Amino acid sequence: MLHERTPVEDVRARKEEMMKTVYRIISIHLGEPPATFDWKVHDKDKKFLSFANLTPKQFYENHISTNVSDLVCIVNDPRHPYGTTMTVKMLGNVQEGRDVLYLNLAMDDLIKYTKKTIDNDNPVWFGCDVGAESNVKGHGLMSTELWDYESVFSTTPQMSKADRLRYGQSLMTHAMVLTAYDEDSSSPDEPSQWRVENSWGDDHGDKGYSLLKKNWFREYVYEVAINKDILSDEHKDAMSKEPIQLPPWDPMGALASKN
Description:
The chain folds into three domains: 1-33; 36-64, no CATH class; 68-258, Cathepsin B, Chain A, CATH 3.90.70.10. Strands 7-8-11-10-9-6-12-3-5-4-13 form an eleven-stranded mixed beta sheet, covered by helices on one side. A two-stranded antiparallel ribbon has the order 1-2. Helices cover 28% and strands 25% of the residues. It is of the alpha+beta class. 21% of the residues are buried.
């Protein structure tokens, strides 16, 4: 426990010593992190390409077209007011990195910005509760209509999205990518379903792809990363607000803490 009279400089110095010990133990078991690596890949035309002695920074600068500084994380957390920002205490895990910052918006806004990003030919990274009412491995389907609770139990779960977060019933457990959507003639502003690209291999869904239904999106999608340029002026202004400080154990930090 930190004594109230202990200088901050002493605490930080002790922390540096402890991190060296942690690094040494991990390196003994897993090996030293490589300074460079070789990358081999087939491009979209099936042409084989090979790149030798890349540093992580070189890989990002030469092969990643997205500038991550242009992205903003939008969340849907109905426990807190919309149009506000939030952060999770002690979630940052990169030295000298930026603090985690979420813009909390209504689900209609989340859907609008996700759809617009795909219309601009860009995929959308998103965080969700992947195991809730889904059959990703077998049928590659995420839908709130997979199971008929009423016929079996004569009741249907009624907990709201906000209450599921409050009581630990639901939280972000996995991140995937949205790559396309199907239009809904009855609701042109909201797609009927989305195509999801996952990282679990070709034996899940349709060669690694799944379908995410519109109602599931509303209930179990919590976060998307979109380009801040497409935000409305109102939402851009909201990004400058002082963020709500969420505790370290808050479910909105679950995805980063699990990874």
